[in-house]
Predict the structure.
Amino acid sequence: MNERERGKMLRRVFPEQYYAAFLSRDLRSDGRALDRTVQTSLRRKWSLSRADSSGDGDGVHQSLGSVLLKAGNTMMLALVSASGVAAGVASCECVLDMGPICSPYVLRGSSHALDAAVVARQVSEMLCSTVDLEQLVIIKDVLAWSVRVDVHVINYDGNLLDATGLAALAALQRARLPELTPLHAPHNDDDTPIPHPPGIGQPLMRASAERQVRIPLRSKARIMPCSFVVIGDKLLMDPTGEEERVSDAALCVQVDETGALCKVSKYGGAVVSDEMLQECISAACGEVNGWVKLLDEDDA
Amino acid sequence: MIIDAHVAAVLVSHICCARSLASGDGRIKTKLGASEYSMGKYGALIVDAADATVEQDSEAAEAIVPVASPSLFVRAGVLSEASGSAYVELGNTQVFCAVHGPRAAGSGGSGQGFGSGSMSGQPSSQRGIVTCDVRSLGEGMVDNAGALAVVVSSILSAVVRLEQYPKSRIDVYVLMVNDSGSAFAATVNAACLALCDAGVAMRDLVSACSMGVTRVRPDPASESAMEVDKCDDQDDHDGVLAVVANPQNSRPGSRKTQRMTLMDFAIMPNLGRVVYAHLRGQVEFNHVEKASEKAMAQARLVAAILSSYMREREKSALDAMSAGTA
């Protein structure tokens, strides 16, 4: 049995030893350094648009923009949809769908469903800080946009949070809302519009089929998570699936575009020292330029 | 991929009768019948040349025009975590398929999502089961997903050598990213390719084709295949009767193909067997034979593509491995 096959067997049967052998040389099994992220690419050519038949209704349903993200082997598809919501409370949420297609470890009843829910919640919070919710209100107290990002995990090889956050942000940047013009807006004699009393079931706005607007994002407010994992006494950034499974603790640091720290989260696991935490934060801040460039490149 | 030796021999002879022209960047362009097929390291793409000749059927009351099939793109091995995977694009219909297994039965539920089915019941000590779970993005296609999952799992149960996997289950997960018609054909082709990629023992490849029988008003302005959306019901006598291979909805969201008369076929090309045949709608007796012939021919073409693509892939993988160890 040659070296390669022996290595494969070790990886299967004793993964801790396999990774320990790499980490003792400050390397990872795919050749990365400990503080490097995987190669990430975004494909924006996916435009899934399903126009609903109605154009005059109270709500407009469309799939407005989509992005396929490949971070290393982790592949996910993020779709944006928006609908008009009565009572004028704008919102933005992220729904994460992690089905058994993505990994042999994900089956019904496995703990991954809980992980997915936690990650979706975290990404929703990130998006709510990033999206300018006030500008999503169409008519105050009457009608507002409710934006939803559905992220479907197609292949899961580690680092769910980072990939979901990036995919959701990229999809939001890509998505276009239809421009709305009010229907029968009556005017006073001096041409000031009378506030339209909302009747039940009465169409309020017409959605333009041609003109579209971007989803308003607060400037310089995009938040990106950066996940780490601790194996033994080594800190690894952007873990793969196998590294996650042999890890002792997981950490996540969220920074925004300006390098300001937004959130640090550590859910259980082994104890981590202060220095390690500082390392994480500075490493996350160092990554900012990289992901801003990725999000902004060919952003038409 | 594990296919019997005699089947492999048949495949080789089938491919040898195609004329192939190698182009500069390593892509192989082949002509199989009237279609052009090119294959590179990114996948295999087949673009069907528009077959515009009107075939005069002396027994039928009228001529039937065959309409070209939309382009097909296949690629295997796209998902690293699955045992085998495939991505298929049939026109605008995009499908991911992942195969997990064979794995121990009882290691989890039968999948989640709207559509899941298994025609084989529970795995026994004599044979395993194949389950299929179809997930489609978006609310519109929910009613199709369950039926499609049951159909695909029944087809795969016939094709996979389940007696070689006792007490095991092979889970096939399908994610339909975009469905603009002919989801059945895309799904079955993807499942076949994914099973090959996973190395699951099968009796033969399985390939599928949908054939729509409808009336078409040829658009004098466009030279390419006629728009399915301009088709009307069969009873309208103004248009020309056409058989449309793998009909697509030209506009996203239109449901034209769901109202067409559709014949779905899944065949095992080398054993020469039909695994699945389904007709929805009405077809005159005279036209059934013509339509099903075209469907089988198309399915055989797809199977030839799949098999030559897999062989090329295996060959390049072996070359890479021997170069690596050398």
About this structure: Confidence is low (pLDDT under 50) at residues 1-29, 48-61, 107-116, 221-234 of chain B. Chain B touches chain A at residues 78-83, 85, 96, 98, 100, 103, 107-113, 133, 135, 137-138, 140, 171, 173-175, 177-178, 252-253, 325 (CB under 8 Å). Chain B has one domain: 5-19+43-49+62-104+127-218+239-324. The first helix of chain B runs from residue 5 to 16.
